[in-house]
Design brief:
336 residues, alpha+beta, Aminoglycoside 3'-phosphotransferase, Chain: A, domain 2, 9 strands, Aminoglycoside phosphotransferase domain-containing protein, Kinase-like_dom_sf
């Protein structure tokens, strides 16, 4: 379903499908086969702790600890293939799947214990690790664009971003006013008036010399496992990811950090975490120059969030989406 199509097709009501007996039997059969092949023994009942329109998870107790099964909304089913690729390219920085089903986007992963959020200490040092270590992951992936894109990841260069926004604003503005995905006349006019600022932001980023890499697009301390002392963080939940200008990845963690620490973005703890990330790129440009690019990257990051929400919302009937998420794409695209 696209945003402009009628909302009557319940064949893509993923929460209903994922709660259904037929899907559960099929997923269970695959889980049992793959865990058996990997020498795991299931020791109890399989539970379904989460069902949202963007994904569902099952938990499987085994003789080697808890295992997680995940299926995404089909628009983001590339995650399983992407994680499989990342596990070969940066194995210390992601959770290596036990098994994937590439066509369905099914993935089985060993439980990794506490996330950094769950193991958090006061002071924001965990955020510095999140940003610094994800920046290191981005640097390692720069030479591997073709391998990463082959997993099905969306690429959005800064050169194409303003035209995408202008085109998408027109599409959203043409929707009926009662459709919560729509952009009103005044909102669309204000967003178009801001397009020159987005064009300039993209020009700055393109001229920076910083190469494209993986943009997680939902990076925060709840999407990184703390792991063992002295070992790198392992990142997960790549369903929102794109391949684009890497500095855009800073926007979500800064927003999350400010909320969790009840701080502003000029708080020394936030600045310290951001500088830990920026250090990854100081061989390309001085720290101050890279930092100066972050306002431009924030505009582009809003477009990236709009893209991931569009992928999700296009693939379900709007009636099954909670009202608070129905306007997510249009809200983000107006922030660009």
């Amino acid at each position: 379903m696209t945003a402009a199509e009628p909302d009557g097709d319940r064949s893509r009501d993923w929460p209903a499908i994922w709660r259904g007996e037929a899907w559960r039997a099929e997923a269970t059969a695959w889980i049992e086969a793959e865990l058996g092949r990997a020498a795991y023994r299931i020791t109890g009942a399989i539970d379904q702790p989460r069902v949202r329109f963007w994904s569902t998870q099952l938990t499987v107790p085994t003789d080697r600890g808890r295992v997680w099964f995940k299926e995404n909304n089909p628009a983001q089913s590339f995650e399983a293939r992407l994680v499989d690729v990342l596990a070969r390219l940066v194995p210390e920085r992601v959770v290596t799947p036990i098994a994937i089903e590439p066509d369905r986007g099914w993935m089985l992963s060993q439980d990794q214990g506490a996330t950094l959020r769950e193991a958090a200490t006061e002071g924001g040092d965990g955020w510095s690790r999140v940003l610094a270590e994800f920046g290191a992951l981005q640097r390692e992936l720069v030479p591997h664009r073709d391998d990463v894109l082959a997993a099905g990841l969306t690429r959005m260069s800064v050169a194409e971003t303003p035209a995408y926004v202008e085109r998408r604003l027109g599409e959203l503005a043409s929707l009926p006013a009662e459709n919560l995905r729509s952009v009103g006349v005044e909102e669309a006019a204000a967003a178009r008036a801001a397009l020159p600022a987005l064009v300039e932001a993209c020009r700055e980023l393109a001229a920076s010399g910083i190469p494209e890499s993986l943009q997680h697009n939902d990076l925060h301390d709840g999407n990184a496992f703390a792991g063992q002392p002295g070992r790198p963080l392992t990142f997960f939940d790549f369903g929102d990811a794109l391949w684009s200008h890497p500095l855009a990845v800073v926007s979500v963690p800064v927003m999350s950090m400010c909320a969790s620490l009840k701080a502003s973005d000029d708080d020394p703890r936030v600045a310290r975490a951001v500088d830990a990330y920026v250090e990854n790129w100081t061989d390309v440009s001085p720290l101050r120059a890279v930092r100066a690019l972050l306002p431009a990257a924030k505009r582009v990051a809003a477009v990236h969030r709009a893209v991931s929400w569009r992928r999700l919302l296009d693939d379900v009937p709007l009636a099954v989406v909670e009202p608070e998420w129905q306007d997510a794409e249009s809200w983000y695209i107006r922030q660009a």
